[in-house]
Design brief:
With about 375 residues, the protein is of the alpha+beta class. Helix content is about 40%, strand content about 20%.
Length: about 375
Amino acid sequence: MGHQNTVFHQVLANIPWRQFNDLVEQHQSDKGVRRLDTKTQLIAMLFSQISHTKGLRGLVSGYGSHHRRLYHLGAGKISRSTLADANAARPAEVFTGLFSALLGKVRSKVADTARECVHLIDSTTVRLNRLSGEWAGFSEGVHGAKAHIVYDPDQDCPIHAVITARNVNDITAAKTMPIKPGATYVFDLGYYDYAWWAELNAADCRIVTRLKANTPLKDVGERLIQPGGTILSDRTGLLPARQAKNRHNPMNGRVREVRVKTDTGKILRLLTNDLTAPAQVISDLYKRRWAIELFFRWVKQTLKIKHFLGNSENAVRIQITVALIAFLLLRLTQRVLDTTIGSLEFATLIKTNLMHRRTMRDLLGLPEERIPRGNDNQGMFQWA
């Protein structure tokens, strides 16, 4: 029987190595490096993410036990001190750039039309220890980082991310994100800012969010609804002239409020600038926020962002970025194989057989065939 690469090798084959090498050169991340180059750092961090090793000691031990098989990937040896130093000092932009390159391979161009393009915005927090207090202090004894994500539910992948300390407000991070003209943006109360809404509205974006209970509408016009359904009311009106005492509201056009009763009996006041779509469409768009919650849950359950390999801001950013890269690699591998297996089950299967020499199709019980490669389009990633 001929030589067969490991499952890990096959997953990493989706990395655009030429673009990665260009990023290493651009940011000079290997300048003056003698023992641990950036490629080895990336491979070691991905090994840690997918295999679920805990701590630097566990990573070095597990990685070292498979060194002969990792050698074929072009990876060198690692030690606790050199890896910790690399995570603390090496430019995080190399890894964010790789995330962008991979993103282009994962996302198709199906949802490019304005009203077909739905972007969900939300954030998730990860707790850090007190050694990260210099940059990630939230309150006394509480430290953490926050990942602000723009998520495409149709493509089932993140399309933009900003990593900040936990005490950075969601709306502050959202204002640094690029706006796609004509897209639909769905978000919750953490992004309550009339000026930002006005920017989205000016870019011809559809907004679907929630109104606070104490926000009144003026000059209200009622619309007909079907009685007996979950839509309790549908009306248009004007937002207050000011969001706070001295903050003028530039969102001065007519908006729409759709009151919805959820399955649990809770009543939501949904706000949108779409005055023509059926009320049920607005309600269904807001329900799609659940997709980004499932993504956060999947990442926290499947990847390694609960135990960090470093305490500095740079080390935490690199680890969260590599976790997102691991997500894209697994998703890309799963899509190329065209398997119906669930994402969590697929990730578990890869983890269990990571260093086995088996083809991916054999692992999944699929007939063998040549796996096509994707393209290398660019995506977006940014730090605050």
